[in-house]
């Protein structure tokens, strides 16, 4: 049985809301306030996000969300984070080999030492 997003958010609130009083933030799924930025991120990346990923992005703000050493965003703006993670950085670094990023493949979260990829064509 899989939990629904609202159930996950509720459980995370139960566990981590008390810890926010101690200064531990970023472990709850907070409501999304800016859905338009993700349309621009899709254009910048040349992809169309899968429907389920779009639903997640429209529902929750992942800009500061990190859980179990997996970070979705750390700068408060997840749309910009998606573009940054999937672009060549100022030092020429990138997660893919070759010249071009694989079509329809994006990094959507990072952990040490892993990156989490999403195939925007299949949703896998």
TrEMBL record:
It comes from the Bacteria. This is SMI1/KNR4 family protein.
């Amino acid at each position: 049985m899989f939990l629904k997003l609202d159930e996950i958010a509720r459980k995370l609130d139960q566990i981590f809301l008390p810890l926010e009083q101690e200064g531990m933030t970023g472990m709850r799924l907070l409501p999304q306030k800016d859905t338009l930025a993700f349309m621009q991120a899709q254009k910048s990346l040349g992809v169309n996000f899968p429907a389920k990923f779009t639903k997640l992005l429209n529902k929750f703000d992942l800009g500061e969300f990190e859980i179990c050493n997996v970070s979705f965003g750390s700068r408060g703006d997840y749309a910009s984070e998606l573009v940054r993670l999937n672009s060549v950085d100022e030092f020429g670094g990138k997660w893919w080999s070759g010249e071009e990023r694989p079509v329809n493949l994006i990094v959507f979260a990072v952990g040490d030492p892993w990156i989490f990829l999403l195939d925007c064509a299949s949703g896998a």
